[in-house]
Amino acid sequence: MRLPSFLRIATGAAAVFFVAFCCLPLGAGDNKMDDPDYIGNRKVDDGPNLYSIEKEIALGKGLAAQVERQAKIIDEPQVAEYVNRLGQNLVRNSDAKMPFTIKVIDTEEVNAFALPGGFFFVNSGLIMKADTEAELAGVMAHEIAHVAARHGTRQATKGTIAQLATIPLIFYGGWTGFGIRQLAQVAIPVTFLQFSKAYESQADNLGLQYMYKAGYDPNSFVDFFEKLQTLEKKKQGTMAKVFSDHPPTGSRVVAVQREIQEHLKERPEYVLTTSEFNDVKAKLLAMHNRRPDEKMDPNKPHLNRKPGSGTGSASDGTSSGNSGGTSGNDDDDRPTLKRRPDDGN
Questions:
Q1: Is residue 344 a contact partner of residue 307, using CB atoms and an 8 Å limit?
Q2: Cβ-based neighbour number of residue 336 at 10 Å
Q3: Where are the domains of the chain?
Q4: pLDDT tens for residues 80-96?
Q5: Most distant CA pair in the chain: distance in Å?
Q6: By the 8 A CB rule, do 42 and 33 touch?
Q7: Within 10 A of 248 (CB to CB), how many other CB atoms are there?
Q8: Short-list 317, 310, 313, CA closest to 297
Q9: Which end of the chain is more exposed for a tag (fewer CB within 10 A), N or C?
């Protein structure tokens, strides 16, 4: 069948555009992309995008309405306010150019997903599976990075161009051509949630920078990766949702660790967890009739301190103990310090 002339012109132009698009690097040669000091003053969403910011927000708002009609949103004040405040702090320390709306879905599925336009949903299962606030912040920062880099609409643009470059299916099928993905019993067009390896890698790197700038230990992101790998070996399917498309393989973990070592200067202190995280996690576990994991004192915030920056707690000056340990029975209002071994010192 011979296409009308206007479609032949459109598909020909799209083919050229598509080839050029596929050859575009993600911030290659731009040191700003690796430097957290430039967060907020760089363009991480560079690349072809058929969606304006306004159109992207409108799109995300519509998709978010679908999520809220199909999923159970937790409106318990302590849980909702804590997760929103944690997320908004990460957003403030990101490259995102749009406001975020953050809500918690009541499901034990270990996952979080951010829709185009800053509509962000965190599953209660993710909070219950995390051991520390820093682990939770790492996953949330990764999703915020997808929005900051506008991966959803950029990938939708790529899909639209790819379709135009062959047969203009977009004129007939609309978004159904991209398929539908079930996520916590919510149907979302797969193009907005399933990203290429290049986009996942960029979100890993940007997410590490965002959590680092917000004061969290970026190694906690790796810790969560490794924890899920261990759980997956014990019970298949644990990791299937949160990292189903690009699981935390050995090469991905190595890449993340290299990013931390090469571009994130070690700080004397990092936030590891807080008493508020433990309270919220305990509340969620109680809502799901599960027993909390008592690995840490829920009444104390925890900090990760580099050796040499101090020898003990602020209250009594005692040593923080061995690597990975915590300080002893200080006043509950005092932070508990976690120390890492010093390299060669």
A1: no
A2: 23
A3: 5-263, 269-339
A4: 999 999 999 999 999 99
A5: 83
A6: yes
A7: 21
A8: 313
A9: N
pLDDT per position as a tens digit, 227-265? 877 776 776 665 545 555 555 567 788 889 999 999 999
Separation of alpha carbons 140 and 123, rounded Å:
11
Helix, strand or coil, per DSSP, at residue 285 = helix
Amino acid identity at 39: I
Q: What is the pLDDT of residues 62-81, one digit of tens each?
A: 999 999 999 999 999 999 99
| C-alpha separations of 31 from 26, 197, 211, 327 in Å | 12, 21, 19, 39
* Amino acid identity, position 126: L
DSSP-based three-state secondary structure for 270: strand
Other C-beta atoms lying within 10 Å of the C-beta of residue 119: 25
Which residue is associated with the tokens 């599976």?
A: 129
Q: How many CA atoms lie within 13 A of 187 on its CB side?
A: 5
Six token digits for residue 253: 């973990």
Nearest alpha-carbon partner for 109 in 71, 68, 152, 63 = 71
The two structure tokens encoding residue 29: 């040669």
Nearest one of 203, 181, 214, 195 to 87, comparing CA atoms? 214
Residue from 310, 300, 304 nearest 332 by CA: 300
CB 187 within 8 A of CB 70: yes
Tokens describing residue 228: 């899920």
Query: What is the DSSP secondary structure assignment for residue 303, as one 8-state letter?
Result: E
